[in-house]
Structures are given as structure tokens and as C-alpha cells.
Amino acid sequence: MQQQIVVDALEVELAIAEYLAQADEQVEVQAAARRHNALPFWRDVGGCLFLRPDGTIWSMGWDTPELFEPVSDFKPDRGVVHAARGYASKEFPSISGLEPQRGPAAVPCLTCDGKGNIAGVTDKHPNVKCSCGGLGWLPEPSSANTEP
């Protein structure tokens, strides 16, 4: 099952156009953004996540840039998507619906003690991100977290 979020498609389209107009990063990321009409919004050691105007999330690995694949809403991807959306919502505040909404059973992040940043680390190393996406909480555990 693919991760889908409710975002304003026009806001995503505008962010994609703005990204493509000023993109100066890896050729593979730019090419994927253009080819798949997708906004790159999270980069880590494994690759890049993209948001499409329909709210689906896709990934591209650095070792396999020709593969553009949907991201699952199951473990282990769910935690990565949560963190990516948390940080991306700050980078792209004009995209409504991008920030994860805290459910009633969400749990405080133990890594940052619910603060959204790792004391003594995040301030010295801004590229180090907390696994909660800067939100201070993690999605609620549920049976929807694991594949059948």
C-alpha cells in the first residue's frame, strides 16, 4: 500500500515549478522531479523522497536512480515518511496537509524528549535530524503499521 496524504495539488505543483526553476543539485534528482512531476523533499544516505501532487510519496535510491518507486505506509517506511513530512512541512509551509497530524495515541519521541531536536547535537550539526521530524512525537502504533 502506498503512503498518500491529503495535500493541495496546486500548492505542490507550484512548489515543483519553483524547485525546477532554481534547482542546482544532483542531476538525477532534477531529472526525476521533472520526469515524474514530483517535489524532492527528503534526502538521506539512501536516496530521496518525492511528493507528487496527488499526495503520494515516491522514492529514488542513489544507487538506482532509474527506479522511482512508491513508498509503503508500513514499517519500516512509515517512520521515515513521518520524519520527512515533519521536516518538509517547515521547508514548504505553503503546502497545506504536508505536516503529519498528531493522533490521540501518538507517543512522545524519546530521542529528543518531545522537543523536536536533539540537545547538544542538532544545534551543532544541523544536518542531523531527529527521527520524529522535528515534531516531538511519533505516529501511534497500530496494526496498520505492519504489512499483513
Ordered list of secondary-structure elements with their pairings:
Layout: H1 9-22, H2 27-36, E1 39-43, E2 47-51, E3 57-61, E4 69-70, H3 77-91, E5 107-108, E6 137-138
Antiparallel strand pairs: 1-2, 2-3, 3-4, 5-6
Description:
The structure is a single chain. The chain has 3 helices and 6 strands, in the order H-H-E-E-E-E-H-E-E. The chain is an alpha+beta fold. It has 2 domains: 1-99, no CATH class; 102-142, no CATH class. Mean pLDDT is 85; it is low at 142-148.
Gist of the model:
The protein has 148 residues and is α+β, with helices and mostly antiparallel strands. Helix content is 26%, strand content 14%. It has 3 helices and 6 strands; from the N terminus they run ααββββαββ.
Order of helices and strands: HHEEEEHEE
**Major β-sheet profile:** 4 strands, antiparallel
Helix-and-strand structural type: alpha+beta
Give the radius of gyration: 15 Å
Which strand order do you get reading across the main beta sheet?
1-2-3-4
The general outline is globular
* Tally of separate helices: 3
Notable features of this structure?
2 domains, disordered C terminus, globular, four-stranded antiparallel sheet, alpha+beta, 148 residues
